[in-house]
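Researcher: I'd like a structural prediction for the single chain below. Treat it as a standalone chain; there are no partners to consider.
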Amino acid sequence: MLRIEQLKTGIIQENCYLIFNEKSLLIVDPGAEDQRLIHEIDKIGRKPEAILLTHTHYDHIGAVESLRKHFDIPVYVSPLEQEWLGDPRLNLSGLARHDDMADIIVQPAEHEFEMKEYEIGGMAFTVVPTPGHSIGSVSFIFDDFVVTGDALFKGSIGRTDLYTGNMEQLLHSIRTYLFTLPDEFPAYPGHGDATTIEHEKRTNPFFQ
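Model: Treating it as a single chain, here is the predicted structure.
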């Protein structure tokens, strides 16, 4: 049985997720506050195996380099956003209007996602494309929940006014890959509270 822990990080309160079984742990979107994340991971007491990225906007990747080095683990990213990791213009850190923010430059990810099933540390999940917020956005479907990044939020969807954003594409992504999941599935977004597929199908204003 997998467990998932949500940690809100950084100025924008991005959701980093720690997903773990009895032995291993996956880190999803470590956005900021690297020392706090390391402390929480150490408290859980499972072996970190990898960092998984739903997309590469700055608020989702700010602690990647620190955690990768500290735990000596690989990073997985969409091939469509591999180059964004090292380019502050593309990951938007160079455009963010936060006085104390330095440009975020992350070294290339060791692995580029294929849209298929993976098993890492005894944890199986399927990577599906959910572009529209950004061209390389993906979601992770586990046995009984989904991590949606900035595609689907509780009562909303991701912004589509940023580079490579596309409203039609995002709505299609959600309908095709997320709303076809079981109604009872919890959905864990990149910002805000968790929701369920049924709740969003029934009440999300973008789909009524």
